[in-house]
UniProtKB/TrEMBL annotation:
<dbReference type="GO" id="GO:0030435">
    <property type="term" value="P:sporulation resulting in formation of a cellular spore"/>
</dbReference>
<dbReference type="Pfam" id="PF14098">
    <property type="entry name" value="SSPI"/>
</dbReference>
<comment type="similarity">
    <text>Belongs to the SspI family.</text>
</comment>
<keyword id="KW-0749">Sporulation</keyword>
<dbReference type="GO" id="GO:0030436">
    <property type="term" value="P:asexual sporulation"/>
</dbReference>
<dbReference type="InterPro" id="IPR017525">
    <property type="entry name" value="SspI"/>
</dbReference>
<protein>
    <recommendedName>
        <fullName>Small, acid-soluble spore protein I</fullName>
    </recommendedName>
</protein>
């Protein structure tokens, strides 16, 4: 994923509420289109960079369960 994708995704959702962001995520998942995956990756990266170690550990445990 190149840096231009990160900037474009961030610009497209800048200033959106939590509910609006949730709708973006749910819509991307519902559509199931491969080209939407990089945008979800940008969301994950942003969250990861702002999460503390405990939140990251909890997420990784939940992710491991979901991927089992």
């Amino acid at each position: 994923m190149n840096f231009q994708i990160r900037q474009a995704v961030k610009a497209n959702v800048q200033g959106q509420s939590a509910d609006e962001l949730e709708n973006v995520v749910e819509d991307a998942i519902k559509r199931g289109e491969e080209h939407l995956l990089p945008g979800l990756g940008v969301f994950l990266e942003a969250w990861w960079n702002h999460a503390d170690q405990q939140k990251r550990q909890n997420f990784m445990q939940d992710l491991a369960k979901a991927m089992a």
